[in-house]
Write a structure and sequence with these properties.
There is one protein chain. This protein is of the alpha+beta class and 365 residues long. It folds into two domains: 258 residues, no CATH class; 72 residues, no CATH class. It has eleven helices and twelve strands. Helix 1 crosses helix 2 and helix 5 packs antiparallel against helix 6. The longest helix has 27 residues. It is elongated and about 90 Å long. It starts with 16 loop residues before the first helix and ends with a strand.
Length: 365
């Protein structure tokens, strides 16, 4: 069962603005990497998406996190108007005690300029007209950044009942990833999302004819140059995956099965290298470590929270190999019934919003 003693607040009161910005950057980067890995599993090596496509798809899936105010890959922030209207929006929000966006603040100034221009007429207000045109252009850039559906690498298809576990059609989006396969995606997150402490990916692969499913769950953690910090927050998240997927027996090798493959581990810790701000290249560099291997390392070094990444790498594989092995059924859980999966998820409240943003992906034929 889920151990509620590991709950903790979304936000520490002593976190300053710089720390919050850094945490937001790490959250955005872990979410973008999770979307990249989810897509890699879904397309099964058919193509290599660009990072612009991945970012557009991630924005499409979760605009609350990767909208116009995002920290990473935000071309809007190159415009000096952006910071001005970000500050205005923040001040309006505090004054009126409700959340107002950069777009709201721009619209207010456009409306105010329109009133001033009407008083004297357009002939006597050329400077005001020039300012208004500039704001209209800036507004267009904001909308372009906010609406990326046309650039999404996943193509929407219609929603229809498929008799899968957790069928609720209100909360998922469905995409076509090949001629015969579909991918359903739900984004589960705390409210408000900026207080989230990380990203999880739960990927399910369905055998609809026999009503069976295979599972892999991944927790993302931004790492340093040579070390991985497993702090209290990360340890809480590892414990959750351990309680759900390890202690419930997803990794137990079924009796009588002795064919060659990796162990049936279903839960993984995924240290991910931080993006370098001065490097225009964006490369997903990280590795997958089974939760049990993380626990063994913690048992060997009980007095430390910062582990040299080479100690984790010795029990890890890269994201490319992870995708290939999961898709060839040589990694991840064994097949389990729909009924068992649903029972475990309900008992552990796995699909309820917690302190992490969770991408829940269901792939089926």
């Amino acid at each position: 069962m889920f151990d509620s003693s590991f709950d903790f607040p979304y936000k520490d009161e002593d976190e300053d603005e710089d720390f919050q910005k850094l945490n937001r950057e790490r959250l955005e980067w872990s979410f973008i990497n999770a979307v990249r890995d989810m897509y890699g599993i879904a397309i099964k090596g058919a193509e290599e998406p660009t990072w612009r496509e991945i970012i557009d798809t991630a924005t499409n899936l979760f605009p609350q996190l990767l909208g116009p105010d995002r920290v990473l890959f935000n071309r809007l922030k190159e415009d000096p108007l952006y910071e001005e209207y970000r500050e205005k929006a923040a001040s309006y929000s505090l004054k009126e005690k409700k959340k107002l966006t950069v777009l709201d603040a721009v619209d207010r100034d456009i409306e105010e300029l329109e009133k001033l221009i009407r008083i004297q007429g357009t002939q006597k207000t050329p400077a005001l007209l020039k300012r208004q045109d500039k704001l209209f252009e800036f507004r267009r850039k904001i909308n372009e950044s906010s609406h990326t559906e046309n650039n999404s690498i996943l193509r929407d298809v219609y929603k229809v009942q498929r008799n899968l576990p957790f069928e609720d059609g209100k909360n998922y989006r469905e995409f076509k990833v090949s001629e015969h396969r579909r991918l359903r995606i739900r984004i589960l997150h705390p409210d408000p999302p900026e207080y989230a402490t990380g990203t999880d990916l739960i990927y399910e692969q369905y055998w609809t004819k026999k009503r069976l499913v295979r599972v892999a769950a991944v927790q993302y953690k931004i790492m340093g140059a040579r070390t991985v910090e497993i702090d209290r927050r990360a340890n809480c998240q590892i414990t959750r995956l351990e309680n759900v997927f390890c202690k419930d027996g997803f990794c137990i090798c079924p009796e009588g099965k002795n064919r060659y493959r990796l162990p049936y581990c279903a839960a993984f810790f995924r240290p991910t290298e931080a993006i370098q701000a001065d490097d225009p290249r964006i490369i997903s560099r990280g590795f997958y470590v089974p939760i049990c291997a993380v626990r063994q390392l913690q048992a060997e070094y009980p007095d430390t929270h910062n582990f040299l990444s080479k100690y984790l790498r010795s029990s890890a594989i890269t994201h490319k190999i992870f995708e290939e092995l999961f898709n060839t059924k040589m990694l991840g859980s064994d097949w389990v019934s729909y009924e068992r999966l649903k029972e475990v998820y309900i008992a552990n409240k796995i699909l309820e919003p917690k302190d992490t943003i969770t991408i829940y992906a269901q792939e089926y034929n």
